[in-house]
Request: fold
Amino acid sequence: MRRSDEIDTPRGPARVAYDLPCPRPATLLVLGHGAGGGVDAPDLLALRDAAVAAGVGVVRVTQPYRVAGRRAPAPAGHLDEAWTAVVTAVLRRWSPRPTLLVGGRSSGARVACRTARACGAVGIVALAFPLHPPGKPERSRAAELVTGLSTLVVNGDRDPFGVPEAGPGIRVEVRPGEGHDLRRDPRGTAEVVLRWLRERGWAS
Reply:
């Protein structure tokens, strides 16, 4: 079942798209978009389709700045505040609460990492995590991945934003021939995520 609505946040309304395999899914995956993109990016759509087919509910969140028609991203604190408000509101709609996973692509992956513990998530899916600005490896964002939660990072080997290294609780899957947009084989990327979800008992 699919539906969408808007949720008020301290930073304005966010748009939320629900794709659910059943009214009360046991696992819910909440996904955010990249800085200048949207929730209809090929990798996000492929992941949505694969996850729902495996019994996982998927919620895709459009940040308030994008709902307002702006392409330039809001400051990190504003993104985190809006995201946390949305996830909290979404979870209130289920009792008992489903197992929560958070994630997204690029900027959305960073937001998910920074807020995962505050939101009560048990795992993170980070697609095209932007390790550093292009050409500036000294400005590493690797610390954002260190959450203590089970985390899957899926990056292309041609990503100009770099590829994170694996660490305790952090699995890194590198997709050959893929850039930052992960557009060459989105279904293959989704299958990588689905295998990880099944290993942990979060998907059927």
User: Anything to note?
Assistant: Residues 46 and 134 are 26 Å apart (CA to CA). The mean pLDDT is 97. The beta strands are 2-9, 12-19, 27-32, 57-62, 99-105, 123-127, 150-156, 170-175. The two ends are 18 Å apart (CA to CA).
